[in-house]
Structure formats: C-alpha cells, structure tokens
Design a protein that fits this description.
With 158 residues, the chain is an all-alpha fold. 93% of the residues lie in helices and 0% in strands. The chain contains two helices and no strands. The protein is rod-shaped. The chain starts with a helix and ends with a helix.
C-alpha cells in the first residue's frame, strides 16, 4: 500500500506547484489576455465608430448628389425657358421687321404707282396736244392745253 506520507508529500507538491504557477504564469497570462481583450474591444469600438461615420458621410454625399441633380435639372429648365423666351423675342422682332419691310414695300409701290400715273398723264397730254395740233393745224397755247388736260383728268381719273 502506498505510503500515506508520500501521498501527503505529493499533495503538498501539487499545492505548492499550483500556487507558484498561479502567481508566475496565470496572473501574467490573464493580465496579457485582459489587455489584449481591451485592445480588441477598443479596435472594434473604433471600427464601429468609423463604420457609423462612413455611413453618415455616405448619406451626406448622397444628399449632396441629389441636391446637385435637382439643381442641374433646375438650371437646365431655366436655361430652356430662357432660350424659349429669347426665341420668342427674336421671332417677334423678325415679324415686326417683316411688317416694316412690307409696309415700306407697299409705300414704295404706291409711290411708283403715283409716279407712273403722273408719267402716263404727261404722255397722254403730250399725245393729246400733238393730235389736237394736227387736227386743228394750228398751234395750241399752253394755257388752253393745261385747261383741257385738267378738265379731262377731273372727269375721268386714270
């Protein structure tokens, strides 16, 4: 049978070894593990903060992008409206210019018509005087001629 002292000596050796190992190995290893856990927790916390900040930045960027798109659409619509207004103004100016040209052309035509009528009257009067001179074989005075012409044109306008 085993000796009781040996058992007691082995138990005492195990207890001493346990106490020595606990103070020499367990506490430093536990301290190292706790420090490592705190470092990992800190890194995880920082990563979560960075992730949250990245999400906020992304949301801000999306909002800025949407505002830029809206502003771009607004600018395009304003430019199109401005261009349409300019086109309308140009068309109005062109129509006014065309009306002025037509009016001037009508006035020119009317003036030319009056000039041609006067020229025609002068030719008719010259022919009438020549014809009357030949028929009468005498010279007609200018006053008589003017009176006959005036009376003719007052009765029958050309």
């Amino acid at each position: 049978m085993p000796d009781f002292r040996m058992i007691l000596l082995h138990a005492l050796n195990v207890a001493v070894l346990y106490i020595i190992l606990r103070y020499l190995l367990y506490k430093p290893v536990k301290g190292f593990m706790d420090a490592r856990q705190k470092k990992i927790d800190g890194q995880l916390s920082a990563a979560e903060g960075s992730l949250q900040q990245a999400k906020e930045s992304e949301a801000e960027c999306r909002a800025m992008l949407e505002n830029a798109r809206k502003e771009g659409h607004t600018m395009i619509n304003d430019a199109a409206l401005h261009a349409k207004e300019n086109a309308d103004d140009i068309i109005k100016m062109a129509e006014e210019k065309a009306r002025e040209i037509i009016k001037q052309a009508r006035e020119d035509i009317e003036e030319e018509k009056r000039n041609l009528q006067q020229e025609l009257k002068d030719q008719v009067s010259d022919l009438s005087v020549a014809l009357a001179a030949q028929i009468l074989h005498r010279e007609v005075r200018v006053e008589d001629n003017n009176e006959v012409i005036r009376a003719f044109f007052e009765e029958k306008p050309v």
